[in-house]
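Job type: complex structure
Entries:
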Amino acid sequence: MDMELKTKIKEGTIAALPVVLGYLPVAIAFGLLSKNSGISLGDTGMFSMFVYAGASQFMALDLINAGVSAGSIILATFLLNLRHMMMTASLSIKLKDVKKPLLPTIAYGVTDETFSVLSFNKEKLTVPFVLSVNILSNLSWVAGTFIGYLMGEIIPSSLQSSLSIGLYAMFAALLFPQFKTEKSTLYLSILTAIVYILIYSTNLFTSGWDIIIGIIISSALGVIIFNRNEEVKEN
Amino acid sequence: MKSYLPLIIGMGLVTYIPRLAPLLFLTNKELNPKLKQFLQFIPYTSLSILIVRGVLTSTSDMLLPTFVGIALAGIVAYFKSNLVLSVLVAIAASFVVINI
């Protein structure tokens, strides 16, 4: 293996660490809850492998237990995960020069968490880096699911809860240092928080739509407000 | 035991296709500068929303630990720029808050 490839994989592994750390407890909780809902080990594992979207998997368990039809659960999943479309659209600018046949593999691994790590990566995104982040994150999600199904009871729930906060902590830890280098990103984040709180408090939108509409409105406002005196930076 | 395979496949497809489509259609395209700027703002706006949403939707017993964890992670990251350290400090602090 050449040195540069090795370095990229090593960097990707380090970048994936917080995601892995955050995914394990959440996936363990999913495995445990799925078992308690009477779902087989095989199906539980396939949820994490084929769907690979935390919030929708938990939502699906709730809806299954409430007796909601598969069609309605699929529709709800679509709405909840449509935000990833905004994220991969955003990533597409950073994935120039990536060979087309690799894009379906990269797309599979894009979640809120891997997207955050990838989009705030300082250097240009390379395929080995992206795949290291995506594969390790995915493995921890799937492994955590099985661990939770098979031995979830022995992990105290207060530890599971505090570990799962790690994911939100990671979002903050990625976002806050950006404010140092560019003041306008701080204003954009404050603006976004206000926009989202307003949207959330109207209760007009179901979970999923509120996120998508929030992203669209605040990013558009950002373009209108901050685009006037700033050049578009090249990545 | 009931098989959930059709549900799993359906959920998988509606999750995967929106993740894939923009990559296939937008990568290597010349974009309008305004659209490009819009897409470049998405990491900031989506993360801000996910953070705020995490606080707004947390259950009453998790509200304080979540808030403390997020705030500490942000502060540590701002000064130290170490992602893993920030996350660990946040987890430890939330664990303490949950157990008080």
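Summary: Chain A has a mean pLDDT of 91. Chain A touches chain B through 96 residues (CB under 8 Å).
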